[in-house]
Amino acid sequence: MDSNNSLVDSVVNIVFCKDRDECPEPTKAKVQGQIPKWLKGTLLRNGPGKHSVGEMSYNHWFDGLALLHSFTFKDGEVYYRSRFLRSDTYTSNMEANRIVVSEFGTMAYPDPCKNIFSKAFTYLSHVVPEFTDNCLINIINYGDDFYASSETNFIRKIDPETLETLEKVDYMKYVTVNLATSHPHYDNAGNTINMGTSIGDKGKTKYMVFKVPPANIDTEKKKSPLKNAEVLCSIPAHRMLSPSYYHSFGMTENYIVFLEQPLKLDIMKMATAYFRGVNWASCIAFHGDEKTWIHIIDKRSKKPVAQKFYTDALVAYHHANAYEEDGHIVFDIVTYKDNSLYDMFYMANIKKGLSEDAVLTSIPTCMRYVIPLQPDKNAEEGANLVKLPSTTASAAKDKDGNISCHPELLCEGIELPRINYNYNAKKYRYVYASHVEWRPIPTKIVKFDTVTKDMLVWTEDMCWPAEPLFIPHPDAKEEDDGVILSSIVSTDPNKSPYLLILDAKTFKELGRASVDASIHLDLHGIFLPEKNSSA
């Protein structure tokens, strides 16, 4: 029992609670094994790296201050650097030596010696309060620029080589979205496609799909590429003051797949959260008795398809992939039966979640849904409208003429799914993901074959892997020709943190780059080929 408690304490303190130090200058890593000579470029990642300011600590792991870090590959060598995002949030907190800017799981209040009424009036003037610019979730490529992002209307432009923080950008100046995802898509023409929620615009709440062109058009004045953003489609929310929370969406060659799930934001509760002494996350509720509406948006007509599709109540954070096949849309997502995952990452719950006293009430499950784009109008109620022989997923008309969709279970226990992005919006086979069981934290990296349902696994004692990222071989002939990269935090006192390089086909370790630096467990990121960055 004592040894188990010691392990839990070690994981909590080292993996989650420990504040990291930045390493702004390139540090050469110690390479073991072999780094493929074709692997040239920079792995750029983002995630929470500082969980306390002064004597105050954040309540939730996802609230920590953003720490960017990168691994640059050049001639078989690896260089590491990291730098805190110098957001307005970071600056304000550091100057006050306390948490003064609210995050979703942590509500900050003014210094008692300051006039609380001035702060109150500031909050009252906004139906939707001004959010943090602590952009800690992902890196987005818009035009020629790169931005640290979270899910608010603020993103921060960064220098992908030095990791320095540049301009603060407000989506609201270009597309009227108060919230936006950190998981955009990139099409074959180089456009960036993203989604956001517009709350109360002209008395309406709606979901908006927008497109940003592949390069800065106004290069002379160095304007934001978002200046050329185009709204492709907007969808009214089912409930005007209770829009759906969503973290990502799917995209095929011709369609956008958006799940309006019954995980709802209560806008009025959010507007009054400060006065009620609660955080914004408490204003999000899962309604298990409601449907999940599946919106299919035609990119060509810029309109949702007329047919209504739905499935049972679920919570989904990450889409794996989506594609079209023989008049159907196939999309794979990681789903939960409730919203317990977010609650497990409150700092007070993490220790419980790593012990035998608490478990995830809903484990992640990878599901395949199939949408018949041209369903048989004469089909009887309840008849299966899916005509693909390769799946057990089904869809059937109900008495109201809407189509109820029932998924195929692909596998259980995977999260943070990534694919060979060259196969995005195409029929594909392999998912690379983190593996979790009853604990919320991954201890394994897996390769899942959606055809055979086989799974290859990498794991190592006392090692905690970040999201795996697939990098294709420049001369790839097959979908899994390439490598998997994942940064690893270790609780072994005799082992330095390192970047793991796996052969994506065999899942055998090719090499690792150990770093004498304070590496944190990150969330998401991208790989930039050599022409875009250097060590």
What does this structure look like?
This protein has six helices and 39 strands. The strands form nine sheets. Strands 17, 18, 21, 22, 23, 27 and 28 form a seven-stranded mixed β-sheet that branches. Strands 2, 34, 35, 36, 37 and 38 form a six-stranded antiparallel β-sheet that branches. A five-stranded antiparallel β-sheet has the order 1-7-6-3-39, with no helix packed on it. It is mainly β and 535 residues long. Mean pLDDT is 90; it is low at 114-125. The chain has one domain (2-532). The longest helix has 16 residues, at 2-17. The protein is globular.
Largest sheet: 7 strands, mixed
Structural class by sheet pairing and helices: mainly beta
Give helix % range: 10-25%
Instruction: Tally the helices.
Output: 6
